[in-house]
Amino acid sequence: MSKIINTEEQNKYVIVKTEGYFNKDLGELVISVVEEKVQEDKFHFILDLEQSKIVNSIGASILIEVIEILQDKDGTLSLCHMAPIIEKTFSIMGLTKYCNTFATLDQALAQ
Amino acid sequence: MSNETKPSVELRIPILKDMELVATNTADVIAKYMQLSEEESGEISMALIEATINAFEHSESQKDIFINFTISDDELTIKVIDQGKGFDSKGIQIPDIDSKLKKQERKRGWGVMLIKELMDSVDYESSNDGTTLTMTKKKKNE
After folding, report:
1. Quick check: B27 contacting A, CB < 8 Å?
2. How many CB atoms are closer than 10 A to CB B118?
3. What is the ipTM of this complex?
4. What is the pLDDT of residues B87-122, one digit of tens each?
5. How much is the pTM?
6. A contact set with B (CB within 8 A)
7. Is B22 on the interface with A (CB under 8 A)?
8. B85: phi then psi, degrees, rounded to nearest 5
9. Which CATH architecture has domain A3-109?
């Protein structure tokens, strides 16, 4: 099942960890968290995809909406622990032009 | 392998949520059998997800879709067949993230582009009776 397994805040970042297929449902869960946290003036997000090894373009498209929301607030979306095929997919789509990408969560937090 | 002896696997998939993963699970098994790399296997799975979702969404039909994998020594051929109303593949616009951001533009529409980027060849045959997508992945010699 696709789900968010943890949401926590460290320094200025909201870290969202997902599990399972990154499809429309999971994308909508992520954007809900972002919308909620933006209301609390949190504008910097790290999406940890360690437990999500597969994605579809509908879930990825929702991340474009996330980027749009955060651009309006001078916020950022960082991605970490991406499986190679997810990184390649996001690169083909051009998503990685608008996100910071990191191998690990620690690297994302240290940016 | 001659044409007569090429092994094949056939799936019949109902249009139900996340059923595209049935196809990717099968593709994983076939990729292992063919000793394809992890990279090749991932690319096939991603292309198959997109092809299956497109068949689900664009066929405008509730009829099952069929997926046929044909294995040969040097390549895997996959056909994704829907029984929908057909479409003009030449009419598909290439999406661009720069134009999708900030322009109230629909964010979706990446499937065909991804399939073409991830597979070695892609061909659509479409009529009023449905669409057949044929895509191949060549085995890299390492």
Report:
1. no
2. 23
3. 0.93
4. 777 777 788 898 888 777 778 889 999 999 999 999
5. 0.93
6. 21, 23, 54-58, 60-62, 64-65, 67-68, 71, 83-85, 88-89, 92-95, 97-98
7. no
8. -90, -5
9. 2-Layer Sandwich (3.30)
